[in-house]
Amino acid sequence: MSMSRPDGRAIHDLRESKAEVGVLASSDGSARFYQGETSVLVSVQGPGSVGPRSELPTRATLEVFWQPKTGIAGLRERAWEQRIHHALNSIILGDEFPRTRIIVTLQEMSNDGSLFACALNAASLALMDAGIPMRECVAAVEVAFSKGELILDPLSSEQKGADGTLSVGMSSTNLEEGLVLVTHAEGALAPKQFDAGLQAAREGCKNIITFFRSFAERRFARFIQT
């Protein structure tokens, strides 16, 4: 018998996704993504000017900054910045804007679990809103392993009691092949758990892409491929 969850979901169910774009007038692009009670606001600036120390001769320089809801970013948030940078840098067509800079700022608004995945999804939408050319977008979900069960999109309370968690960002155009753009694991995960987590994440990411397609049908149609 499957374990019961605090919000009544089945173990492989996602919470409701919601999104807003163009929410920051001072940014070139912005989006707020909600996964249940978890939400992240992302702003995008650029492509713009870049100093000689940071410019790249063949592509745009991407900078990613994480802002916690309170206080300053710690080691965990710096690790998230690096992984999100890796994922976004792999999908942005930066060679179209050499010697420029794109700044992505992620602001934690509320956290009831799966915050890293929520941030990646918000970043995808914010880049679309900014009109940054991309070869694809990244869809992300988190899985947790608790009491012998694999649960999708864990709440904060479920993360705290889990043996380990795995956040996975996948290509929007290669979900069937399972092309992974980024992962972030916390806790102790056996190889079999990691593989099972990837498989569950693939199914969850399909749901996120379905949401993206529905939400962005007209405004972002050029980014969401069938």
Structural description of this entry:
The chain is α+β, with helices and mostly antiparallel strands and 226 residues long. It contains 4 helices and 9 strands, in the order E-E-E-E-H-E-H-E-E-H-E-E-H. The chain has helices spanning 75-91, 115-130, 156-160, 191-215, and strands spanning 17-21, 29-35, 38-48, 61-67, 101-110, 138-146, 149-152, 164-171, 180-187. The strands form 2 sheets. The protein has a 5-stranded mixed sheet. Helix 1 packs across helix 2 (115-130). The mean pLDDT is 91.
- The side-by-side strand order for the widest beta sheet comes to 1-2-3-5-4
Order of helices and strands: EEEEHEHEEHEEH
Proportion of residues in extended strands: 25-35%
Number of strands: 9
Structural classification: alpha+beta
Please mark out the parts with pLDDT under 50 across 5 or more consecutive residues, or reply none. none
Sheet of most strands: 5 strands, mixed
The percent range for helix content is: 25-40%
Shape: globular
